[in-house]
Amino acid sequence: QPELLRLVAGIRGIAEVVPSGQTLPPFDMQCPLLSLPRVFRTRLETVPATVPYLPVDPDMVADWDSRLPQDGMLRVGICWAGAAHLDDVGARLIDQRRSIGLDPLAPLGGIGGVHWVSLQKSPAGGSSPRIAGFPMLDLMDQVSDFADTAALMANLDLVISVDTAVAHLAGALGRPVWMLSRYDGCWRWLHGRNDTPWYPSMRIYRQERPLEWSGVVGQVRRDLLALTSARDTGREVIRAVG
Fold first, then answer.
1. Closest CA to 108 of 241, 236, 231, 224
2. Are 183 and 211 in contact (CB under 8 A)?
3. In angstroms, what CA-CA distances link 155 with 15, 90, 144, 173, 208?
4. Quick one: 204 exposed, middle or buried, by C-beta within 10 A (0-12, 13-18, 19+)?
5. Can you name the residues that pair with 114 across neighbouring β-strands?
6. What is the average pLDDT across 135-160?
7. What digits encode the pLDDT tens for the residues 77-119?
8. What is the mean pLDDT of the chain?
9. Which pLDDT score, from 0 to 100, does residue 128 have?
């Protein structure tokens, strides 16, 4: 997708990136991205999880930092919904199960010592919705592609996201990320564990019952309160996998 062009063009070993819809250059072999683990005979113990593996322009990072609060409080990015996939019934049904919406996240809004930063891209490119008691800085109308999102994310202490591109981007950048997984989570997250071999900096919070997010949000709230308390007392701030 064109939105990924700037982000992936700088990855070491990639000779050329061709946006969707453009004519491909001559090539000798083609392999779908998600078939590469089979080609490489990847196993859990050999997953190449050395992060970060996506480059971020330092000048862009500094520019985004200048737009964020500078008072030393915890900067936490949040993303509560994936793409709706209105043209794909199956994908739309999955999105309805993985997306939370902002209202169920309201218990997080009153936690002190946190600057909430929206990572939710509005389909129309405008501002995200607001709910009472959940102050949030929304700069997403200034984000043009995933390179911008990566530079913004590089300035955050923590990312909290449903199972969508934001969670994968944070993991690939090696940023601490808490991923909120639906009950019937994607196969890649395995079962019975709160970490993942793909992203060492990720912690997974799983629904205990289908469509029931209150337990997940409650656990996230407890852990975030512990995180802010640790910061206040001068102890280590982020422990991505617990």
1. 224
2. yes
3. 29, 35, 17, 11, 32
4. buried
5. 74
6. 96
7. 999 998 776 777 777 788 888 899 889 999 999 899 999 999 9
8. 89
9. 64
